[in-house]
Design goal:
161 residues
Length: 161
């Protein structure tokens, strides 16, 4: 009896997995409408390497990203990222685009789980600073990435003298 239940559950799981493959919820890449006017080729190259799979219409999904339910999770993440900033639709106003450099400097972007699965997106400290500065210059950032570490919020010098 127990064996029949296990076999039934196994068959139901396999059938559910196969049926899930028929649900067409996967990342699509609409046409690129307008790209940013990058401050430098280096910024563009770093952004393409670390940001474009989620924040553009040029997403490159790995083979395993075509398999449900993984494809559903990836689609959800890409849709969410494109709602915040999409480098392929710079004809639109992106309310939080000016915070991109800060997000990169704080290590929020690219997210650690993404870098784990996409080692090419790993940024050295030098690349992280260059990308943050370039994003600030390109997207009108707040300039947080321009000051050396520990001096980002430079106050007036002390008047104790």
């Amino acid at each position: 009896m127990f064996r029949r239940v296990l076999i039934g559950l196994g068959l139901a799981t396999v059938a559910g997995f196969l049926v899930a493959q028929l649900i067409p919820y996967r990342v699509s890449n609409p046409p690129v409408i307008e790209s940013p006017r990058w401050d430098s080729a280096q910024t563009e190259a770093l952004a393409r390497r670390a940001c474009y799979d989620c924040h553009s219409n040029e997403t490159q999904v790995p083979w395993y990203g075509q398999i449900a339910p993984i494809s559903w999770v990836i689609r959800d993440h890409v849709d969410e990222a494109r709602q915040v900033l999409n480098f392929s639709e710079m004809n639109r106003s992106w309310e939080e685009a000016h915070e991109s450099g800060e997000e990169v400097m704080e290590g929020e972007m690219p997210p650690p789980y993404y870098v784990l699965l996409h080692p090419q997106a790993q940024l050295s400290d030098t690349e992280r600073l260059a990308l943050a500065r370039g994003l600030d210059a390109t997207l009108g950032g707040e300039g947080e990435a321009h000051a050396p570490e520990g001096r980002r919020h430079h106050d007036e010098e002390d008047d104790d003298d």
